[in-house]
Design a protein that fits this description.
The protein is mainly alpha-helical. It is built from 22 helices and no strands.
């Protein structure tokens, strides 16, 4: 597999989590042609660097009332993430020759038409994601320049959305021309932010020893502090956690690159789950030493929009380094947000429109490629759909509300991608004899247990996405309902248009 194609594969599968170590990334590329088997701990570290980020800790703390998220994290890992990761391992092992992409899994088990819909879902989810990157980048710039967003948040929403639209259109133009350096910048930014996420936990626990009189919050170590309140808010926020732990299908091509995969791959996945669980729980405790959940709940949009920056700002105060950590985090995020925006526009389009299935189900005009090799009409489709989302959000009261709404909308649409993983797994198990090979890894030899795990993860993901749609705010509720409906409808309409075109030519 060529390096460029492999890059697009990685980005297509989980572009929202682009935190990839440059060294590991190069190692993964080289391992394609390297017969040497990797250790299971190497695979676990690769997976950890691509799945997890500091923002997941912050969102969990904010949406689930501080330390009360701990119980939910543990349940999510044990009842969802572990079986999900093991299913990915089996699919990647069976279809190792096809590169491990979700569309290829669906194509092999269900046929090209369903593979097209899987590819469409992955692309459509990024329409929402793309609309959030410009906002995230501008907010990061405000923190990098002013070390706060008071001036940015004071602007009329129409102004901030106009600026977001301008940024978005500029990077659509960049995507149509191609600037390879941005890919490297995204990798560097992702790596640095990942390192800072780990260092945050270490430095926060060390802070009381270095500066014991800085004013920390005490953690209440009783059951009430860790058990969530099972109400509407809780149920409608579960998609945040599902979104946080998703994306491990990215490492599936390396199942058979591991020594003794049937034994060591599940070991790597269980280790991954433990590492993420430890990071989530310790990160939550670190946040609890900084913030009072009552204050967070009273200013929820502020912490949803600026939580990571406020956390690093507190860390600056504890270590008396002015705004050093905030500046580093903010500018890394600026580079990461804008470069990821370009990749988010281009890579999913290439995966959708460049596949065999595309030619059979997508109108010819959308397949047009310009002299730079970009799907120019596909980019125009992104401009229309993502641009419309950006414009509609100008109706929200302020910039913080826009950011909060985008985070919630992403959490309800992005996990829809994972549904195809579970569908492909169930279809694979139904055709077990067809794909049976003693060298392939299996999460379990028990068919009933396999079906139960597949359907359980499918139902949990779908339920969280549906529950996450609800919002007391009418406009947010409208966008949460209308966005997936429009995107799904468009995916159904395009094959009809293609069929009509073929009839005219016949």
């Amino acid at each position: 597999m060529k390096k460029k194609a492999f890059l697009f594969y990685l980005l297509y599968n989980d572009i929202v989590k682009i935190n990839i170590f440059k060294g590991d990334f190069l190692f993964m590329i080289e391992s394609q042609n390297n017969p040497k088997k990797m250790m299971w701990i190497t695979l676990a570290m690769m997976a950890f660097s691509t799945v997890w980020s500091f923002g997941n800790v912050v969102n969990g703390f904010v949406y689930f009332d501080g330390t009360k998220v701990v119980f939910s994290w543990i349940l999510m890992f044990l009842l969802y993430f572990v079986p999900y990761a093991l299913m990915v391992g089996e699919l990647g092992s069976v279809f190792k020759s096809s590169g491990g992409g979700v569309s290829s899994w669906v194509n092999a088990t269900m046929g090209p038409k369903w593979a097209y819909y899987a590819g469409w879902t992955y692309w459509a989810c990024h329409v929402v994601y793309i609309s959030s990157k410009g906002t995230g980048g501008l907010r990061a710039m405000a923190w990098g320049i002013f070390t706060n967003t008071k001036w940015y948040d004071s602007l009329p929403t129409a102004w901030t959305q106009f600026a977001t639209l301008a940024v978005f259109l500029f990077f659509c133009w960049v995507a149509s021309r191609g600037i390879p350096v941005l890919k490297n910048l995204a990798t560097v930014a992702g790596t640095s932010m990942f390192i800072m996420s780990i260092l945050f936990i270490v430095m926060m626990f060390a802070a009381p020893l270095i500066n014991p009189h800085a004013g920390y919050y005490n953690i209440n170590w009783n059951w009430k502090s860790f058990l969530p309140t099972f109400n509407v808010k809780y149920l409608t926020s579960l998609s945040i956690l599902v979104f946080a732990v998703g994306g491990c299908e990215k490492i599936s091509p390396y199942v058979n690159k591991v020594k003794n995969p049937s034994k060591n791959f599940p070991k790597a996945m269980i280790t991954l789950a433990i590492m993420i669980m430890v990071s989530a729980i310790l990160g939550t405790f670190a946040m609890a030493m900084m913030f009072d959940p009552k204050v967070v709940n009273a200013h929820m949009n502020e912490y949803i929009s600026n939580g990571p920056y406020i956390a690093f700002q507190r860390l600056d105060d504890y270590y008396h380094v002015n705004s050093l950590f905030v500046y580093i985090y903010a500018w890394c995020n600026v580079i990461g947000q804008f470069s990821t925006l370009v990749l988010s526009i281009d890579a999913p389009l290439r995966m959708l429109l460049g596949s065999k299935e595309a030619k059979d189900y997508i109108p010819k005009k959308l397949l047009k490629v310009n002299k730079h090799g970009a799907f120019i009409n596909g980019i125009w489709m992104v401009v229309i759909l993502s641009g419309a989302l950006i414009v509609v959000q100008a109706l929200l009261p302020d910039a913080q509300s826009v950011m909060a709404q985008l985070i919630k909308l992403n959490s309800t649409t992005m996990p829809l991608r994972y549904l195809w993983v579970f569908i492909a797994f169930i279809a694979l198990r139904k055709q077990k004899d067809k794909f049976e090979d003693k060298n392939n890894y299996q999460m379990t030899h028990h068919q009933g247990l396999a079906y139960t795990a597949g359907w359980w993860c499918f139902i949990v993901t779908l339920a969280c996405c549906i529950l996450g749609i609800y919002s007391p705010d009418p406009l947010t509720l409208f966008l949460n309902v209308a966005t997936p409906v429009i995107l799904v409808a468009l995916g159904l309409i395009l094959p009809t248009i293609k069929k009509h075109q073929d009839k005219k030519l016949a």
